[in-house]
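Lecture 7 notes: from sequence to structure.

We start with a single chain of 409 residues. Read the sequence below before looking at the structure.
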Amino acid sequence: MSLIRPFAGLRPLAETANDVIAPPYDVLNTEEARQRAKDRPWSFLHISKPEIDLPPDTDPYNDAVYAKGAENLQAMLEANILKQDEQANYYLYRLKMGKHEQIGLVAVANIADYNSNRIRKHELTRPNKEDDRVRQIDALNAQTGPVFLTYKHHPTIDALVETLTAQAPSVDLTADDGVVHTLWVVDDPSHIETITTTFDAMDCLYIADGHHRSAAASRVAEKRRTSQQTGEEAYNYFLTVIFPDNKMNILDYNRVVKDLNGLTTSEFIDQVAKNFKVNPSQNPVKPQGSGEFGLFVDGQWYRLMIDSDKIPNDPVASLDVSLLTDYLLTPILGIGDPRTDKRIDFVGGIRGLGELEKRVNSGEMAVAFALYPTSMESLMAVADAEKLMPPKSTWFEPKLADGLVSHLL
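Now the structure, written as tokens:
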């Protein structure tokens, strides 16, 4: 079985694609999704967030929610809003956000390679989120949220992508947030063979985003496995978009904390200065390199530089998110497990430093920390070492759209 393979994608027609595509299910809460889908009957949010079509007090994990999603998918199929391609294809998917552009391959990836760690992970998953995705895939009999993968860029794929994207696309549209989504269908057998064999010769792929979706796909495959299966069944593969590592765009993933753990501001700064060089700044501090942090407290920005002798030779412990936790958040502010501690929250870098100031100045939070983005090299090093990154280490932009291509099981 190949590492990846083409598939007959379920897609909106070109003329309806703009009405269909939606942000990923996990970047909007229910009320935001309800507002976004208002007066848009074919928005994919009716499939990915179907609680928006049920009474406002409906538990999003109620059985009725998953049933509603399946009903909405069937309605879009019957109305020919979504249609499955007649043959197995690959697809090229370009995302443009401002000056940034990246092109990925839409394919289905082998769950056996995920289980054996050839498709490498770097994050823990939460059982309740996994359960939710398992129930969603089972109810729809489809994978609708692509897993965001990356690979070490390859000249054969680079050249083929350049050739194929010089042709007219199948879909080219601009979403509400200004991100341009463009899709090409790759149906030539020779191109399909080149892509399949080139990827099959690679050592591994890496999960950038979508650990819960990939884990859920593996669980669904395990449930559906039979003694008669060949391994080629659709449920043995999961929906992905695979981008080259040198085109990925990782933004900072910042932290805000509700209180100073009983310290005054001056006491807090004194404690921080034991492990960091601390310098006040008249301007917001956006770190320019690893080991540098911005700190905003009591209306004042500070630039922090960690002492170099504090940085260990370890792929996880040397990450900026680990250094901040190990030398400040835990020993000074008393933050325990960042995955469960209610006193800490996380702010994606797409929101800018102004969002950090807003959260603190409003009184909702006491202190904010701006971090330098985690590098792709660091992500790969952690995954290669079969270790796990701390939660909320990476924020990828732009986001993939839900609904552009889905995988029927």
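The first strand starts at residue 4 and ends at 5. Keep this in mind for problem set 3.
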